[in-house]
Amino acid sequence: MKILITGGAGFIGSNFVHYMRGKHPSYDILNVDALTYAGNITNLDGLTEQGNGNYRFVRGDIRDRAAMEPLFQAGLDAVINFAAESHVDRSISQPDIFVTTNVVGAHTLLELAKTYGVGKFVQISTDEVYGTLGPAGLFTESSPLAPNSPYSASKASADLLARAYHETYGMDVNITRCSNNYGPYQFPEKLIPLMISHALQDKPLPLYGDGLNVRDWLYVADHCSAIDLVLHHGKAGEVYNIGGRNERTNTQVVTTILEALGKPASLIAHVRDRPGHDRRYAIDADKIRTELGWKPEFPYERGIRATIEWYVANAEWMKRIETGAYRSMNDAAAAGD
Ligand code: NAD
Ligand code: TDX
């Protein structure tokens, strides 16, 4: 199988590339990523250093049809679109690029997939397209789309285009909507790596509002196994929710991190709330469990412990981001491509 993975130098995409190399070593993997601030070529260490074999990295922008077209011309069995602007806070201060990358970029890929008859298109979406929940209830695949941030609105827009390409052109499209991921290689603007980094440096941990917003956490490897199942067995046109029923308040998450690192709760600093801050997400993943047989393997307690240990053990990785050194490594790797 020959697959195009977009955004494969980011957090989930790089975990997915590693996962697929381990699980399906005979597959041809083409990884295309623009290496924005969120892309980090060193997330792919071990793949790029081995002379690649049937793995190839190309620096490219999914909005750029002319740059993407040759990748499709070579013939592809599947496209898995991870590439996106992914940070809600950035979407609030600078929404434009969320529209161009998340909507126009996804559309460019859909058009090319249609033109070149790609067998399967998996659009990686998010539970945030459903908006927010009250204290009870879960998002199902038939929950109405009600995005509240420019980020989630752009992701919902891409979902609608992907859906339309199935309905109108009969393309084999799937949309996956996963809850919050955590694990290795997550850029330290997101809650868990940011808080680990601050705690390790004895810096204040900025908790938005009352700290009682709830997220439904899933270890990234469990997201990868779900996408692998959808890629191979997803029914054309279907949406699959993904989540492990691990609801935690932000205060609980941060407290676990502080305790694991032996740091005092006094480091927590309540700061101004995020505008339009969704109160609670929780995913009903019954459909992917019953129809595709997906089962998450990492209980939250184990996953969060492994994640904290990973960031402690990979202080260099974090330092390269904090100093900006990763950017020149990105440029050097892309120049040698
Ligand atoms: P990330 O920000 O870590 O990675 C995004 C990657 O996309 C980066 O490597 C970046 O360089 C690349 N990229 C950005 N714009 C691009 C462009 N125009 N062309 C090519 N590449 C581009 O994001 P992530 O957390 O790994 O999320 C990956 C996907 O999963 C996104 O689509 C996101 O919406 C979705 N998702 C994320 C989560 C989560 O908890 N992180 C949960 C559910 C869904
Ligand atoms: O400094 C912070 N303080 C804080 O209290 C940050 C960065 C976040 N938070 C809160 C906001 C949220 O309630 O923590 C929670 C998690 O925030 P993020 O890590 O920014 O994630 P979230 O906004 O929930 O979105 C994430 O999950 C769904 C990803 O970034 C999205 O890409 C994904 O679609």
Describe it.
- With 337 residues, this protein is an alpha/beta fold.
- It has a single domain, classed as Rossmann fold, CATH 3.40.50.720.
- It contains twelve helices and 13 strands.
- The strands form four sheets. It has a seven-stranded parallel β-sheet with strand order 3-2-1-4-5-6-11, sandwiched between helices. It has a two-stranded parallel ribbon with strand order 7-10.
- Helix 6 runs parallel beside helix 8.
- The model has no long low-confidence stretch (mean pLDDT 97).
- Residues 86-88, 126, 128, 180, 190-191, 194, 206-208, 213, 215, 250, 274 line the site of thymidine-5'-diphospho-beta-D-xylose (TDX).
- One of its GO terms (molecular function) is dTDP-glucose 4,6-dehydratase activity.
- Pfam families: GDP_Man_Dehyd.
- This is dTDP-glucose 4,6-dehydratase.
- InterPro entries: dTDP_Gluc_deHydtase, NAD(P)-bd_dom, NAD(P)-bd_dom_sf, Sc_DH/Rdtase_CS.
